[in-house]
Amino acid sequence: MNFIEDFPPRSGGNAPVNWSILHNFFITIARKFRFRTIPQAQRALSNQLHKVFSLFV
Length: 57
Description:
Strand content: under 5%
Oligomer: single chain
Helix content: 40-55%
Largest sheet: none
Structural class: mainly alpha
């Protein structure tokens, strides 16, 4: 339970689908940068958005 999926902050309309897309996107980024764990990727990339956005260019 890395993202506390069992307790979503919003649970109506399209919110669950949107949160799922964001979580999968972050997991893909963590794998792309070859982090061993999701929390490790969160700590390393939290202040380095330029690395995340470099994937789009």
